[in-house]
């Protein structure tokens, strides 16, 4: 309240609305907007005469248009659901998004998370908090002592347990009525994951071993199933991510077709021949930072449907974002194109990656 006759709505300095409240109606009304009272009941309660109710309804619509008020088409009945998700709903609600509809959408989305280590487990924790109730996790690994420093949610009790079991316990503790499926699998081919990709709305690819080959496998399965997918990587002082929708953006193999040259091929070849195993240098907070940004970008994507054709790089030292490699669909892509590859470096690169179709390799 600014004074007896003017109300200030909103706490965010960027989004404030002043409402004339000559006779104090709005001050009383705002305490009654709780999802259970309808507009007529509220008008009656605060003493608005029938002849003036249209002014009141006009005011409600103005608040609704500015995203300050959620107007429901029927009385609110699911109290527990609202209690659980109300801060999400208030956060999502705006002049463009109906918070309740968006929360319902999140509740219905099914997600596959490939790799529930530091990154994948953090993604899982955010998704279940957001209300995603149907999650499948794939991983072959166990929690080891070094994971504790990289994962806020794991402690000594988790060491030596299968990551998928820890994921299941965490999920069910957060949402006992949700559905989690788990698969212990060392992914070596498209056929290892295809049916799980087919079954969900979204894929989060958080496994990167073997490098490039794993991304190619997930990419192909998502292309076949026409499912949108996130790829993410965490390095020493930066994290990278990109979202790919097979129907809208170039795929991972398009990226290789567009960028692999002699220099890159020689680098990958030398890396493979050296048997070099890079040391993980991620920390719990850099992983959390990257995953929070990924989730926020995912939420925006669900709202606007705009996929970028580039990798975003988050620099942990400067906290700045850079658009790194940008690419588009390639006609001769081996996954989404005609596979008419003639460039020797590319032919050698794909040969070096090995067969991704089945387990024969
Ligand atoms: Zn492609």
CATH superfamily of the largest domain: NAD(P)-binding Rossmann-like Domain
Stretches where pLDDT falls below 50 for ≥5 residues?
none
The helix content, as a percent range, equals: 40-55%
Q: Compounds present?
A: zinc ion
Rg over CA atoms, rounded to whole Å, is 25 Å
Instruction: Tell me the name of the CATH class of the largest domain.
Output: Alpha Beta
Strand order of the largest sheet: 5-4-3-6-7-8-9-10
CATH architectural type of the largest domain: 3-Layer(aba) Sandwich
In DSSP terms (H or I, runs of 4 or more residues), the helix count works out at: 13
In percent terms, what proportion of residues is strand? Answer: 5-15%
Count of extended strands = 10
The biggest sheet, with number of strands, parallel, antiparallel or mixed sense and barrel status, is: 8 strands, mixed
Return the average pLDDT rounded to an integer: 90
- The name CATH uses for the topology of the largest domain is Rossmann fold
Q: Secondary-structure element order, as H and E?
A: EEHHHHHEHEHEHEHEEHHHEEH
Task: Give me some keywords for this one.
361 residues, alpha/beta, Rossmann fold, 8-stranded mixed sheet, two-stranded antiparallel sheet, 13 helices, 41% helix, 15% strand, elongated, binds zinc ion
